[in-house]
Every structure is written in C-alpha cells, then in structure tokens.
Design brief:
This protein has 269 residues and is of the alpha+beta class. The chain has 2 domains: 1-120, 3-Layer(aba) Sandwich (L-fuculose-1-phosphate Aldolase); 145-269, Class II aldolase/adducin N-terminal domain (L-fuculose-1-phosphate Aldolase, 3-Layer(aba) Sandwich). It is 39% helix and 16% strand. The chain has 10 helices and 9 strands. The chain has a 9-stranded mixed sheet with strand order 2-5-4-3-1-6-9-8-7, sandwiched between helices. Helix 4 (120-132) packs parallel to helix 8.
C-alpha cells in the first residue's frame, strides 16, 4: 500500500517530526510501555487527493461535539502503541483521521486502521479550543517527564506558579523558551472529562500544564517545539534536584534578574 506521505514533503515533514520527538521521549525515559500521546493538526497539508481518499475504518464517535474541527485532519499516535515503535514506523503506529461534518465522529483514512489514542477526545477538545481562539498551535504532546512528576509529590510545588518561578530561576533559557511557565492541575482520573476540562482551562494561561503525579500536556506550533518546552522545564528540574543532592538549596536567579530577562527578550512578565 502506498503511504499517504509519498510525494507530500510538507506532510511527511510534520509526521517525521512526531517520529523524532517520539524517539526523544523514549530515550529520556518519559514514555514507558505505551505511555504518552501526540496529536497534530495536519489540515493545512491536505490536498484534494487526500480529501478524496476513502475511509479505511467504520465511522467512530469522538464522544463529544467539536464544531471547530469540521473537516479537519489529524495525525495521531495509536492506542496501545509504543513511542519507541512510532519513532521507527510512524505510519504503522499512528494514523491520519478525518473529522466528519457532524463534528462528533471521525474515520481513519491512512495508512493503516490504527486506532488513535484512547485520549483522543481530550486532545481533540484542546485542538477545538485552539482553533476557536485563533491560535497558531497545531500540536499537542503528553508525556511523563520523571523529574517534573517527582516535584508534584511535594504539595508546595502544587501552589500556583511556585514551580514556574523555581524552574525559571534555575537557568535563563527556561524563562526564554517557556515564557508562560507551568500550569498545575491537581490529580484527576487519567482520560477523564474532568481532566480534559481542567487542561483546556489551564491552557488559556500556560502552554505546558502539569498533571499531578501523572505527566505534562504541552501545545505549540509543532510537535518539536512542544517537546522543547517540556525539555527545558525538565532540565531546570534536574538542576534543582542536582543541587539538592549536593546538599544545598540552590539560590536561583533573583526576581530582579528574571525581570531583566523578560525585558531584554520581550517575554511575558
């Protein structure tokens, strides 16, 4: 079977970004077994030939109605698929889906009938809100960064912006590359409607949100930049933990120094 990516370099580039990110997540130990999910809105790369492709699955309900996704196309990691496998074979461990005109169901169109992530309703709900807000963000990444998750086992880091300010203060690049900081969502049942709604709410203020004792959910223009935000945040967590393991509480950058960063690089304060 010919792949949907053949002779479509822009679409292939986006899917290959997902595959590259999947490899990084596995190498970092952030994607045990089938842990984590990536969903990318690829509608802008869809040509008339793709629009005419028949479904290779029956019509499947999303579980909610998402009016801004009518006619959209997404590349999604498959349910029960491993990131390490997606890194090597993205179209055997993920699929391209088309949202139908009822905005409440979808079909798989390529390459194989790989069911999307079980968290598809949550991911698509976020994408629906992004389009509603006119956001340029096209990708959502959920993963399990070890050190950031460890920090959520301490209640003080669950207070609003406590973790953000600590992580920003560890190294200047964190403030520069994740300027909106880290939102915090108290523990909720994975894949639940409550978790999805809380995530959408927090993403109004943050690009990366932390699910207590679970993982992070990040959005950005593509999968690589979403990964980058998580990566710099977790680097700061590693610096903090390294200092604590050396027997001292790190000083961190002062608020004055961080404000200087914000002014110099035109970052949100």
């Amino acid at each position: 079977m010919e792949s949907i990516l053949n002779n479509r370099p822009a679409l292939a580039t986006e899917v290959n970004k997902v595959a590259e990110v999947a490899g990084y997540l596995w190498q970092k130990g952030w994607a045990e077994r089938n842990g984590g999910n990536i969903t990318v809105n690829v509608t802008e790369y869809v040509d008339d030939a793709i629009k005419g492709m028949p479904a290779i699955s029956e019509v499947k309900p999303i579980g909610t109605t998402l009016p801004y996704l009518k006619g959209c196309y997404f590349y999604c990691k498959g349910t029960n698929k491993r990131m390490r496998d997606l890194a090597r074979w993205p179209m055997e461990n993920g699929s391209v889906i088309r949202i139908l005109d009822d905005c409440a169901s979808y079909v798989i169109i390529a390459d194989q009938p790989v069911l999307p992530t079980s968290e598809l309703p949550s991911h698509l709900s976020v994408h629906n809100r992004l389009i509603e807000q006119g956001s340029p963000y096209k990708a959502s990444v959920h993963t399990h960064p070890i050190e950031l998750i460890a920090m959520t086992h301490n209640k003080k880091f669950l207070e609003k912006d406590v973790a953000s300010n600590l992580l920003w203060s560890m190294i200047p690049e964190t403030k520069a590359f994740c300027p909106r900081g880290l939102g915090i969502i108290p523990y909720k049942l994975p894949s639940s409607v409550e978790l999805a709604e809380a995530t959408i709410h927090e993403l109004a203020e943050y690009d990366v949100v932390m699910w207590e004792k679970h993982g992070v959910f990040a959005v950005d223009t593509d999968a690589m930049t979403a990964f980058d935000q998580v990566d710099v945040l977790n680097k700061s967590a590693l610096i903090y933990i390294a200092a604590r393991n050396m027997g001292f509480e790190p000083d961190g950058m002062s608020q004055v120094q961080m404000n200087e960063m914000s002014v110099a690089f035109n970052l949100p304060k």
